[in-house]
## 1
Amino acid sequence: MATTSSVDLEGVYRQHVKSVWRLCYSYLGSAADAEDATQATFMRLVDHPRTFEGEDHERAWLLTVAANVCRDVLKSARHTRVVAMPEEGPEPAADSHEGAGVDPAEVVARDNGESEVLRAVRELPERLREVVHLHYYEGMKTDDIARLIGAPPSTVRNRLRDARELLRESLGGERA
Amino acid sequence: MTDERFEADLMDDEAFDQAFAARFAAALEAEGPDEATQERMLSNLLAAAAQRGDATAVSPEDADEKNVPTSTEGQTMVEGGRRRRRPVRWQAVAAVAASLALAVLVLRVTLFAGPDQRSAECASTQGQAAEESQPAVTLGATAPLSSEAAASDEAAVDPTAYPQIVLASGEKLVLVEGLVEVGESDLGAPAGTAEATDGTQAVQCEVYEIALGEHAGAYAVRYEVGGPLYLAELLG
């Protein structure tokens, strides 16, 4: 059973940083925000040294904390403002090549040449985005996801089903 | 939907799933993080840990004896973050939030606690609690709710790390996303002490029914002595 020593901290970080960063990136859609959220996640480990029962537990804890950090970021004033502006302003922004009602984050992602798949995932509602990442990227079973996010397994399965339908629609006829 | 049914549905379009999973993984991995980013984050992390008195060297067993990182020390991470290419936001937010929480706690103790309770709290912090006549455990009382809270006044439990709450009755609650705070004036009957878990580890918490206000009918969970109450809902 490992404890979080100063030596272990680096080991834990190196072991899981990519998973944590990618979960954050799936949530937030920005490398800079993902970096902040990843650091915030590992800082929880610094703030609350703990014992893990194994690598799986370690990973589950970090992903849970990362998801919570990302939810908080998404609910922060900055992110709320970014999404809400097009709805508040009836007229299109003068310097925008997109009309009102378009998520600026989406425009930024497009301008950055972001992968169509990542954009499709990011356009999913938050509750679906989370399960898609955990299932398709982390390869987690629905029961494991349910334990991790604190939702019933049936809810996870329903969310995955809904996500698949939306992804099919948004990715068009190319079948992913 | 059962797991078998779900898996069967997946089989209906396995090609889509496999193709999507492969493309999703490839796209994510192409985004990063690159080596430089990883090293920068690690450097910031280790610097912050070192500036907090090498708090990471404190094992959970030793945590009862040592001061694990304090909220005000969190500001040091801002300094560490200056080496980064972007302005640091979350460290500053965390430091301000922790300072506010500490200020509220101090105000509670000094303004609202009765003289008897105040003296009991002082005695408790000096390890003399067992010799004193303690008031009953009530809202804001000093009895430890979790080993983490007992370890240090400054080692706050992170509620988001323990989002699932299991009542003694077996009923399960889940912490509402985004940490919605509940006022004590809205509380109804105590639902008792419960266990909050991340799925594998647990801490003790106090649960109350909410009787008034917009969240009436839901539950409020307190993770640490004198700490805030957070909104939770019945699972399922």
## 2
Amino acid sequence: MLALRRMSTLTPRLKGTAIKRKSLIAVGALAAASLVATLVVAPAQAATRDTVVLQENNNFSSFNTGKKTTNIVINSTVNSLMGMGFWYYDDNNEIVPNTDFGTYQIIKRSPLTVRMTVKGGRVWSDGTPITAVDLLLTHLVCSQGFSKAAGLGDPSKSGEAAFESSCYTGTYNKLVAGDPKISGDQMSLTMAFTSPTPDWRLYLPGPAAVHALTLMSDGVKGLQNAIRNKTAKNKFYKAYRDKDTAVLKKIAQCWNTCYDVAEVNKSTNPLIYISNGGFIVDTIIKNNSVRMVRNPRYNSGPAFTGNIKNVIIRTIDNPTAALQALRNKELDVYNGQATADLAKTLQDMPGIRTIGGTESAWEHIDLRFDKTFGESDSYNGVFADKGSAADKAKALDLRRAFLLAFPRDEIVEKIYKPINKNAVVMNSFMVYPNQKAYKEVVAKNGSDYYTDGTQAERTAKALALVKKHYPAASASNPVVKVNLLWGNLANARRVAQAALIVEAAKKAGFDVTAPGDNSWGGKLVSSDYDAFFFAYRNTSIQQSKGCSGYYSEENYGGFDRDGVIKPICDPLGATPLTDAEVTKGLIDIEKVLHDDAYGLSIAQHPLVVGINEDLKGIKIGFYPAITWNFWEWSY
Amino acid sequence: MLSYIFRRLGVLFVIISGSSYILYNLAAYSGNPLDELIGSRDPNIEGIRQNLIEQLRLDVPPPLRYFIWLRGVLGVFSLNLDLGESRTGENVMVLIGDAIPVTIRLILGSTIFAIVVGITLGILSALRQYSRFDYSMTFMAFLLFSLPVFWVAVLLKEFLAIQFNDFLSDPSIGLSFMIGFSAIAALFWASILGRKRKVFWGTFVGFFAIHFAAIYLINSTDWLLDPGIGPILFALTSFGIAIGITQLSMGLSHRQALISSLIVAAIGAVSYFPMQSFFDREGQTRVIFGAFALSMLVAVGVSLVVARIDRGPVIRTSVITAFLIGIVMVVDRLMQTWSPYISSGEVQYRPIPTIGEKNPLLISDDFWINFLDTLLHMFLPTIALTLIGFAGYIRYSRGTLLEVLNQDYIRTARAKGLNERTVIMRHAFRNTMIPIVTLLVVDFAGVLGGALITENVFAWRGMGTLFRSAIYSFDLNLLMGVFLVTATLALLANLIADLLYSALDPRIRVGSGRQ
């Protein structure tokens, strides 16, 4: 009887539960307790799950991530599920064109002019067709020229621009020439660039539901019919085309404030979350979670192959709490801080599958050549690239020796692999190991000098180099004093790393002082230190792969080979090149870096993601790391 | 008195101004928000840096930047308080306004439990001074005192949430657990009740049997999957409560008090069935509050009819009885909700959560489902805070009661022939409460700002979380906002504690400074 009753309450969703009077049953249960004792109850069963619960550290605060204050991770995560544009990053750090949404192509090389076309039949979640007009908002909030011309204020002056956008100071403003033009059928947008930037795809505008924005700026609440939506979109387009200051100011006002919500419920204006992604927001519980459901009209991206119906993003900013929540099935994906302990805990957790991965940040060691560009204190340490030719040669030998003795294999083996078992030493300064060009770059960039043989052999080679200048040097008599900067002390990985470095360098005759410093960031420019390790991170993948970071004014180590590097790097950042040309350029630059013993990359930061073992299809992408392939998720 | 209060408020103002200036500068110099950008290879890094400088006013040195913040705060005098915006662009006042109820929900229950359990155990332990029970309570108090809350929380989550939920998917209690648990519980009761060896073992065996039978029944009837009290047990409980409360407050020899509370219990028992259909109706919050109010009115009425003398205490006894019976009825109703709740697709037989204030998967209009969900989310944090908190109350109430019991007026009370219950409950207990009340006020204010770790571990977004995230993200406006509120509350609580002390204890006067 009890078992039967439980089965009848097994419903997929809770409705108002009318509870039966249990009184009689309870009496019976008490009286006949011993009889019921043998009643065997089938183990509890649960309905099939179709919800994925993700975790973020912050609270959701806005659907508009274009403001200085609202560009936080959870807002971006929600937006990444809500919106699809012309391309996305995959798990190989490559840009994948999203042909389900539209296409883009270069139509003129000089000046570089690009046309993008929205595929016909794409719709917003309220059914309004997506057109090229929906691509114009980016220009409004990023172009200083447009803002000034339309009477919306000069964004270069603080607080003047009508749109409180953080994009005005960005690269879009520098690169995009004039105002983008809309084609006659309103499905294509053509934009010109001031210079032939190879990374033009990064600056392609994304779609935004401008009809909803325009409606809201007029104080409209609630979803509207097709005609009203179309009228609103036309109004926006006209205001853009005619630079109608009054209308645009109202729109700006709404753009600044309408999207900032900490909760979404039935009384929230549904116009603020009209979107074209796979999921749309259903409810947001303040201080707790964002609940998203499948967008029934989704056709702006790859079709769903998985069966996920809901995504919930919970706010949990304590890793231990998140882990236990994962174990308790309150969370399906944990992607947070990665330490060896945490990875171990995850691996031992029943019902949880872990995948190792890498972050876009990579750890690297830099040596100091001279004072940092623009600083005044001079550097005369062991690695100083100054003085006579003999002095320079000595410093080069010592730099090479230090890098030869640098225990990269050991660091990766002991610190990175326990977290991500696929971790590898990164032998390129600018190319990630999972990128296409990596193999070729590494084969030719001179890194083999620092990878040949075993670490013991390299250390012997290093000691020999040191002995050339300090004959008395040995492992028991480390005479070359090196001040190594790193931080901070709360970072267990770095603490372990520093210890390994000190130990290994000693074998090559280096006496490394590396106590660690919590305010290391400000000390990178200080000439008190001969070497420092920290992490670089890319926020986008560009053709130049960030080679300008090795210009004298960009690096902290006072490394100045601008005469060689700039002529190679500048073209990489200036104009679209073929993959072969790019790879060759990168190889040439990295060869200089390796030959001069600038430093070494160590490895990409490891990542461990714990996933409910029933959930399939999660892959770690470049950005966003988890949500980029939501259409493949499945139970 | 009034001048004393004004003087204290003046001091409060000075303290807050000074400490806020110090804190602002300490926090501002503790790190550089621009350090976050080190290592970023963003092509637009300069723009991002400029944005950050502009947003956080990093161009103004902290000692002066403080006054930018202060200008908004001083707006309080023109009824226009402005604590600024957090780094995520939200109004700090709104954030704090949202966080305070969360924190209060978190600490209110645990504070009440800690007080009730702590004082009860403390008093029992004082009355059994130097007994095994006393020593084990002392041991437990110090043990709990020394436990860090994050660790307790992790253990609680592991055993009471994760493992309990695992267990619940196929709940059958093992024999060794039945025996072990019953033995420990019986030991507890026996050491309270049995002072003589014979009584001790008698009680032990009795309670062992009771507990063992209870667990056996729970196990064999799948009570854990579908619990409930039922009308018979409910009636028994009601009468038990009536007798117990009367015994504590007036003594069973007081016939009118006993009759009055027994009648209340009877009415409660009879109303079990009608109340069930009331509970199914819409507008549950109103129904419940109404029912509580009604039950207390009935209790007052019954006492007025029954009692001729001592009306005040009798009314109090009946009202407390009625209140407790009402709570049992609500608990019973929640138990009935348990089965549909845990078998739902959103809960999937994992009812005890480890994080948050609410199950975000759950979308239900049903009051009881939502109420149960909220309570279950409060379960672990409340236990954690109670465990940590009540140790202090055990020690305080034990110490204070022992001190009071040595006073002359207790000896006088005993000498004039009052029974032990009256001596303890009326003469000693009340005086014990005086220092504890003041302790409580200060504690409560302290916890409001200080449940930082607990909130973090249980992912509750209250004041502690705000404070913590403000520190981690160099969010000065938010940090100062939280500081302003908690510091003011703490100082006000101290003032209130002092005033309360003088109100409760006529021997103490505040304010005059001269005799």
